[in-house]
Amino acid sequence: MSFLIGENMVCGYGGADILHDCTIAVEPGEIAVVVGPNGAGKSTAMKAMFGMLTLREGRVLLENEDISNLKPQQRVLKGMGFVPQTQNVFTSMTVEENLEMGAFIRSDDIVQTMQQVYALFPALYEKRQQPAGELSGGQRQQVAVGRALMTRPQLLMLDEPTAGVSPIVMDELFDRIIEIAQTGIAILMVEQNAKQSLNIADRGYVLVQGRNAHTDTGAALLANPEVRRAFLGG
Amino acid sequence: MPFLGDDMADALNALVILANFVLVPGLAYGSQLALGALGVTLVYAVLRFSNFAHGETMAIGTMFVILATWGLQSVGISFGPLPTALIALPLGIFVAVMLCLVTDRLVYRYYRRQKASGVTYLIVSVGVMFVYNGLIRFVIGPRDQIFADGQRFILKAREFKSMTGLNEGLAIKTTQVVTVVTAILTVGAVFWFLNRTRTGKSMRAFSDNEDLALLSGINPDRVVMIAWMMTGALATIAGTLYGLDKSFKPFVYLQLLLPIFAAAIVGGVGNPLGAIAGGFVIAFSELFVTFAYKRVVTYLLPDSMAPETLVQFLSTDYKFAVSFVILVIVLLVKPTGIFSGKSL
Fold this sequence. Notes:
The complex is a heterodimer.
Chain A: E1 4-11, E2 19-26, E3 31-35, H1 42-50, E4 57-62, E5 65-66, H2 72-77, E6 80-83, H3 95-102, H4 111-120, H5 122-126, H6 137-149, E7 155-159, H7 167-182, E8 186-190, H8 194-199, E9 203-208, E10 211-216, H9 218-223, H10 225-231
Helix pairs in contact in A: 3-6
Chain B: H1 6-47, H2 54-74, H3 85-113, H4 118-139, E1 153-155, H5 157-164, E2 172-173, H6 174-196, H7 198-208, H8 210-215, H9 220-245, H10 250-267, H11 272-290, H12 294-300, H13 319-333
Antiparallel strand pairs in B: 1-2
C-alpha cells in the first residue's frame, strides 16, 4: 500500500464531475508529479486529496487509514502539508511571522524547525523581518513552502509551485524540493512545466480530462513517445 | 503683560484660544473616535462586515458602566479626584463583552454558517443596532445622564491666566486627560496583543488570508470570539470616555456612528493604525471647520480690521457634514484610505 493514495476519485464542483476514476499515490522520500493539459483536473485532484473538495466516489488513504471524511485542518494534524498555488503567504505579515503561523498547531519549540527552513532558504533569513507581500515571486514561494514545512509534515503537497517564476528560480526551487524529499518527506506536486518537473519526478501522472492517461516513472514518461508528442512538444 | 510686547502677547493669546477650544478638545475627541474606529476596523478585518451596531454597542457598554458607577456611588465608593466610572469600567466591559458574545452566538454565527455576504451582515447589524437601542431605552431611558464625578478640572482657566498673565485662559478637564491617557494605554495594549502574542498574530493571519489561516490550523471560532471580546471592550471604553467628557445620551451615540465610520475609512478600514490616524483627522477637521475664529483673528489683526462676524466656516449644527464630506472625498479619491487597509 502507498503512503498516501487517492483511489478511484470522482468529484467536481457543483453538478459536473471533473475527476473520473482518478488514482494518485506517493511514497515517503519520493517526488510524485501530476502533469497534464489545462483543465485536466490536476489542481482538482490535489484539492480532493487534501479534503478541500468532497469526493463523490473513491477514497483517500493515508498510511492505510481512510481520511476521506477529514477536513483539511484535520489532515494537517495527520502530517499533511499543503502549499496553495496562489495567496499562499500572509502578505501583511513578516517572513518570520508567516513561519510562526505555519507552526500554529504545534505547542513545542519551533526554533529548530525555523532554523531548518532558513538553512534550506537562506534568502528568507535575511528578509525575515520583511512583510512577505514585499518579496519577489520566487521568495514568496519559498515562504509558502517554508510555512508548510513548519508543521514538520510527512507529506508536502504543492499546487504549481513554479507558476509565474523565472526558469532560474524554478530550477532553484526544484533543487530545494529534491532536498526536502531527501529528508524522507513525501512530495506530491502539480506542475505546468511538465518537462522540468518530470525530470525530478520519481513517479509521474499524466491526467487527461480527469482520467489517468499515463502513469510511470518520470524518466519513462519523458521517454514515452506518445507522452512526448501530446504533452511535451515532441 | 509688562515683559512682552503687545504683538507677542496678542499672538500668544490667539494660540491659547486655539489650544483651549481646538487642540485640547480635539485630542480628547480624536482619542474617543480612534477607539471607536478601532472597534469598527477590528470587526471588519476579522468578520468582514461594517458593524452598524457599533455605536449602540458603545452606548450599551457605557450604560453598564453608568449602572455600575451608580452602584459604587450608592455604597460610598469613589476614585478621589478621578471619575468613579473608571472603577466601574472593567465591570461594564465584562457585561458588554458577554453581550457581544451572546449576540454573535444568537445572530451572527447563523449567518457565518450560511456564508452570508457582507451586505447581509450589514443589514443584520442594523437589526442588532435596533435591538440594542430598544434595550438601552428600556433600561436607562433616552435622557441625558451625567455621570462624571471627582475633580472637574486639572487646570482651570483662571489659574492659567494668573500663572501666565495672559488675557485668555486654558482649561484642561480631568476627563480630557483621562481620555487621552486611557486611549494611549488601550491602543498600546491592542497593538502589543496583535503584534507580540501568538493569539494576536493568529488574528492578523486570519484577517490577512482566511483560507491559509485555516490550512495553518488556526481555529476560526476562537479568532471570531476574541474579535468580539476586543470589540466589546473597545466600544465600552470609547463610549465611557465620550460620556464622561460630554454626557451620556443614547441618541448622540447613534450619531457618532458617522464620524467613527468616516475615521475608520479615512485611515483604511481594517487597518488599526489607520483607525487611530483617521480618528484624529476627523476630530480636528470637525473642530477646525466649526470653530468661530473671531477672537483669534481679533488678536492677530490690527484693531481697525477686527471682524464683525464670527469667522466660522460652518455652524456646529453641521459638524456631521464634515465627516460626511471627508468620507465622500476619501471614497472618491482614495477608497482604500490613508493606510490602504484591509487586514490587521
